[in-house]
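Researcher: Here's the sequence for the chain we discussed earlier.
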Amino acid sequence: MAGRRGSTAARRVRGAHPLIFVTVGTHHQPFERLLSALPDLGENLVVQYGPGRRPEGVGEAADYMSFEQILECLEKAEKVITHAGVGSILLATRAGHLPLVVPRRAELSEHVDDHQAELTRALGESGAVVPVWEVAELGVLLDAVPRRGERVEPPGRHEFAERVGAALRGDQANTR
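Model: Thanks. This is the structure I predict for it:
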């Protein structure tokens, strides 16, 4: 998730007070499917968009952000939309978010395999994340997901680690 520190756009984001933080991570394949759905969500977005095109109609956007900038955005955001990277999900949940997770899909050339879909499915079934299988559903799901801190009981660190490990091993019995 950490990226280049010298980006002017990334430095501008430091002082922002985002309502919604969106991150696509640092994977080298663009994630245009997610980025193209963002203008429909309004301007109260801070977006880390990676190697893709800067999304139009969002408040702030940076191709890459430092780890510290991402932590700052997670602390200021009321809601989070993320790709299904383990680090991004873990940071969002530790910051008190129930993240909306849009997995990259191999069939759409967004990643090399479907491990993100497998992880999203397992964590979604356990209630640790809100899976977003179709980006057209983002608006409805965004309205339904609680704001940061409104969540009754986020999964504990050990429970989350167990779920991630089980999902990576393909052990469906231990992901619930």
